[in-house]
Amino acid sequence: MFLPYVSEFVEFLSIKEHTLEEILAHMVLRVLRPLEATSAFMSQLSAENVIENVGQFGLTRESISEYPDLYSLQDKYPVCDSIRNRKIVWITTLPNWPEDYPALKNAPHLSGEKTFVSFPIEKCGTPVAVLGIFCKPVIHPDAEIEAFLKAIGALFSLHVYRKIDSPPELRNAEIKPTIERPGVPHRQLTERQYLILKMMSEDRTNQNISELLGYSESTIRQETVKIFANLNCNGREEASKIYKAGVFRTPVVA
CA-CA-CA-CA torsion for 203, 246, 85, 71, nearest 10 degrees? Predict the structure, then answer.
């Protein structure tokens, strides 16, 4: 049922460069038509774990004014839960928000939609943003719809972040050997260590990383020590340079 809409989205993104607002408009008017979407917005996560609204289509000025412009990752809002827990959040009780979100208790959604869905956008395995959509009918989650939204999110991420990723040689990389300095071989990183290293290279603190990945700060510290040992380097700055050089073996699963 949803495959033609995914294909159409691929074609739209491939034709020319689009602004974020143009992409969101196309998603609402064409791609998400089976869900009867009326509006969509994107919020992005900063290195300081602050979520900021960066673009929208279809929302009224009154609707926008009901909600904050900035969120802490630890705030209790649907968009925060989507990024923090890396999951799709479904709300089917509009105009009233569920009791899970007390901060929204006095901000009913009065535009007539019955469903709100937010889903995380990932870049290289890290949740970096969230898309939120409002839909006219009550839409209960099922496997097919969730797969559809994940496909749309993956395409969206691939298009929006394709020029932001690290060096060009990394973008088309498949499997490359670990960087090695003469006489000092690097050992392979686990999947978790590789993800922590990536986030470290984005100038995130151990606390930021622990909040985002759901591990204790102590665990992150222990893993960074192992990363430095495996890379034969002397700290975060050197480890980040090694990561940004972009040649690693495929991480092993921890």
Answer: 30
